[in-house]
UniProtKB/TrEMBL annotation:
KW NADP (keyword) present: yes
All residue ranges annotated as the Glucose-6-phosphate dehydrogenase NAD-binding domain in the record: 38-203
Any GO MF annotation of the entry: NADP binding
Domain Glucose-6-phosphate dehydrogenase C-terminal per the UniProt entry, residue ranges: 220-480
SUPFAM superfamilies in UniProt: Glyceraldehyde-3-phosphate dehydrogenase-like, C-terminal domain, NAD(P)-binding Rossmann-fold domains
Any Gene Ontology biological process: pentose-phosphate shunt, oxidative branch
Record-linked PANTHER family: GLUCOSE-6-PHOSPHATE 1-DEHYDROGENASE (PTHR23429:SF0), GLUCOSE-6-PHOSPHATE 1-DEHYDROGENASE G6PD (PTHR23429)
GO cellular component, one term: cytosol
This protein's UniProt keywords: Carbohydrate metabolism, Glucose metabolism, NADP, Oxidoreductase
Pathway noted in the entry: Carbohydrate degradation; pentose phosphate pathway; D-ribulose 5-phosphate from D-glucose 6-phosphate (oxidative stage): step 1/3
Protein name: Glucose-6-phosphate dehydrogenase
Length: 489
């Protein structure tokens, strides 16, 4: 049985009213005369794999604005035709392409950007999105110069947005310092932090799923849910980025951002304790404020880390042997945690979160296990296998198995199915719910900080075979008779 898209569809956004609830904006969302994306790090891996294809699709297939223009910014001073050829932008699509080369700390670079903006749209009336997709060490120089450039953009009748990709800091202290530095130059209402998992349609559907669950399986809270499992797995290793990854690790790279945002999306309530409806970012922040890493009887945290080992007879090397990785490294390529919420609605419901590289399948999988008879279910006829299953990678779906029925919940907005298309769309129309706010980012660091410090003090790093589901020790974070499920790609 398939529930139609209309059941889960978000409400339409009235013309002239940017969405704040994080749902996909309707095609009638407010439009402006044009969009220009000034992309720092345009020659980098993220731009090549994600950002440039999304901009091409936005320009060619779905655009609340027209036209769409890319002004790429990179350190290499090359002709624009050479950049187009290197980026695979041959000029046959609707996307307008330009390029500026120069140092990120050089004021002359930003003067060239300003002149290109004026020359292309002398009358203003556009949204200018400055997208910072560079290594973290370049952030400070860029934002210092962007502050002055944004002043010009606003003064010339344009709207300004500044989008910054993760990682935002390397711990709570550095994140606070970086935020203070950035907001000295960039207005808070123009600064958007990017976590592309929040832009995935299956995550946005979790908001709509609550309505269906209330009708068919009971409220999504302790009365109906036994536990929650979230798996974010990659089959690749560090892919030539050993020097960078060795300073970061799985806890910082995935758990602190993607993982905890998915937890917040699952645990957030549609209304606050007074029954008042609140925005999606406010609900996510409230869920994060009540979330923490659980502890074991000995006082240590319910967290396990590991590193992938080699595959004998193949090209797959152990993480410790990867290029750029320090001798004797203890950086984790796998992390698993048990979290708990102090929200009375979720009391006693463990949330299990794991991520890793060189695992058996590339999946992002959320399983909300509903209570069966053995769990003391309050609804008659509930089977122990009843589950709400959200698959985000591969062949995405949102599926509910309850009472012997399998319900596939259809996606509501296929035009915005690609996450980075939705990010550009949301930034353009002012839909802030797609982006984690500053409080969410800082609270996520607060949650993982105790584990970071505990691991810095020592403790085991389990080695797991590449191509497996991680170290056997990951089972130690499970409570009672719970076991890790095997996600299906």
């Amino acid at each position: 049985m398939t529930i139609s898209a209309s059941v889960l569809a978000p409400p339409a956004v009235p013309t002239g009213a940017p969405a704040r609830d994080g749902g996909a904006a309707a095609p009638t969302a407010p439009a402006c005369a044009a969009l220009t994306v000034v992309l720092f790090g345009v020659t980098g891996d993220l731009a090549r794999r994600k950002l440039l294809p999304a901009l091409t699709r936005l320009a060619d297939g779905y655009a609340p604005v027209t036209p769409v223009r890319l002004l790429g910014v990179g350190r290499s001073e090359i002709p624009v035709d050479a950049f187009r050829a290197a980026a695979g932008l041959d000029g046959t699509g609707a996307l307008e392409v330009d390029y500026v080369g120069g140092g990120y700390g050089d004021a002359a670079t930003y003067e060239r950007i300003r002149r290109r903006l004026v020359a292309a749209r002398p009358g203003g009336g556009e949204v200018v999105v400055f997208y910072v997709a560079t290594p973290p060490e370049a952030f400070e120089a860029i934002v210092e110069n962007l502050g002055r450039l944004c002043d010009h953009v606003r003064g010339a009748g344009r709207q300004c947005r500044v989008l910054i990709e993760k990682p935002f800091g390397e711990d709570l202290t550095s994140a606070r310092e970086l935020l203070a530095h950035v907001t000295r130059s960039i207005r808070s209402d123009e600064l958007l932090l990017v976590d592309h998992y929040l832009a995935k349609p299956e995550v946005r559907q979790l908001e709509r799923l609550r309505i269906v669950s209330d009708r068919l399986a009971g409220r999504l809270d302790r009365s109906s849910v036994a536990h929650v499992q979230i798996t974010i797995a990659e089959t690749l290793g560090v892919d030539g980025r050993g020097g960078f990854y060795d300073r970061v690790g799985a806890l910082r790279d995935v758990i602190q951002n993607h993982g905890l945002q998915l937890c917040a999306a699952v645990l957030s309530a549609r209304r606050d304790v007074s029954g008042r409806a609140t925005s999606w970012p406010d609900r996510r922040l409230r869920a994060l404020e009540q979330l923490s890493v659980d502890t074991r009887p000995d006082g240590t945290h319910a967290a396990v880390r590991g590193q992938y080992g080699p595959v004998p007879g193949s090209f797959v090397r152990a993480y410790a042997d990867e290029s750029g990785v320090a001798d004797g490294t203890r950086t984790e390529t796998f992390a698993a945690l048990r979290l708990r919420s102090s929200d009375p609605r979720w009391a006693g419901v463990p949330v299990y979160l794991r991520t890793g590289k060189r695992l058996a399948q590339a999946v992002c999988d959320i399983r909300i296990q509903l209570r069966g008879a053995a769990d003391g279910a309050t609804r008659p006829g509930r089977a122990e296998g009843d589950v709400i299953h959200v698959s985000i990678k591969g062949d995405p779906f949102v599926r509910m198995v309850t009472g012997g029925r399998t319900l596939d919940l259809a996606s509501a907005d296929p035009a915005l199915a690609q996450d980075y298309v939705h990010i550009f769309h949301s930034a353009t129309v002012g839909e802030r719910g797609t982006f984690p706010d500053h409080g969410e980012m800082l609270r996520s660091w607060e949650i993982v900080e105790p584990v970071i410090r505990e691991w810095e003090g020592g403790g085991p790093v389990a080695v797991y075979p590449a191509g497996s589901w991680g170290p056997e020790e990951a089972g130690l974070v499970m409570a009672g008779s719970h076991v890790w499920s095997r996600p299906r790609a």
